[in-house]
């Protein structure tokens, strides 16, 4: 996370277009907002647009606005997102979902800084910093002919890749604790902790939904634990199941593990040695058998 944040700080003061790539939930929108907040435009608007969520026939007027009577239903003139972002930052999320027609219009705006509203003849100027993002790799889309090459080079001036959460294992604990602290302070609870077993399970899990999924899992566990210490059994069942499948060594059973931990005075590293397994294996086992509560 620190490496990404440094890239954000480096690029923020310049007006160059930034393209954020990365899977869903990796924090692309958060990064776009951080770039805006650290830029000279921070007092201006930050306008996010999810290009994939707007019905195709409305994208043009959504981005560029329309004049009164431009099409049926256009009862009054409306500003588009480009105009609304004047003096600030326009964040085009899922930019690869834009149709070829809109790609051409976008290219023209980026070249001239001006455009016409749908149905209008007057040229509108908008001084906007563009940040775009996409889950699908832009280059692949360009090579497949779905994304214009000239537009690719226009928007991909400074690329920043947001890696999947599972590839930055150290961030899992930091983020989980961060979300838990936020939840505890929001609901006026004492600071809450994760047990070692819960943490071990979270570190083993793949997080296909990335940071968003982790955030949801923390909220779920916070609710299930009643705001007290979060153990593996409080984590969402699919995460516990994934960890249990991963253990699968067959060497351990709850009774022998509880006994070993008791004999080792609660020291799990010693208990793991005692059982002849690695510490990580023991933690994985504990996470899948959260009911083990060895008596001292
Ligand atoms: N480093 C981080 N610190 C705190 N919260 C984070 C971090 N990264 C992501 N999040 C949180 O995770 C959630 C998902 O982030 P975001 O919406 O920015 O992802 P995204 O990559 O834009 O997702 P999508 O591609 O699905 O739109 C948000 O609630 C965001 O606040």
Supply database-style keywords.
binds adenosine-5'-triphosphate; 296 residues; Rossmann fold; five-stranded parallel β-sheet; elongated; Helicase, Ruva Protein, domain 3; 14 helices; alpha/beta; 47% helix; 2 domains; two-stranded antiparallel sheet
CATH topology name of the largest domain: Rossmann fold
CATH superfamily of the largest domain: P-loop containing nucleotide triphosphate hydrolases
Number of structural units classed as domains:
2
Low-confidence stretches: none
| Secondary-structure element order, N to C | HEHEHEEHEHEEEHHEHHHHHHH
* Ligand types: adenosine-5'-triphosphate
CATH architecture of the largest domain: 3-Layer(aba) Sandwich
The strand count comes to 9
The CATH first-level class of the largest domain comes to Alpha Beta
Mean pLDDT: 88
End-to-end separation: 40 Å
* Sheet with most strands: 5 strands, parallel
Helix content percent band: 40-55%
Structure in words:
The chain is α/β, with parallel strands linked by helices and 296 residues long. The chain has helices at residues 2-11, 28-37, 56-64, 81-84, 100-112, 138-143, 149-155, 169-186, 196-204, 210-224, 237-247, 254-263, 268-275, 279-288; strands at residues 18-21, 46-50, 65-66, 78-79, 89-93, 114-116, 123-125, 129-134, 158-161. The strands form 3 sheets. It has a 5-stranded parallel sheet. Strands 3-4 form a two-stranded antiparallel ribbon. It starts with a helix and ends in an 8-residue tail after the last helix. It folds into 2 domains: 2-163, P-loop containing nucleotide triphosphate hydrolases (Rossmann fold, 3-Layer(aba) Sandwich), CATH 3.40.50.300; 166-288, Orthogonal Bundle (Helicase, Ruva Protein, domain 3). Bound molecules: adenosine-5'-triphosphate. The site of adenosine-5'-triphosphate has 15 residues, from helix 2 and helix 10. Residues 1-223 form the Sigma-54 factor interaction domain.
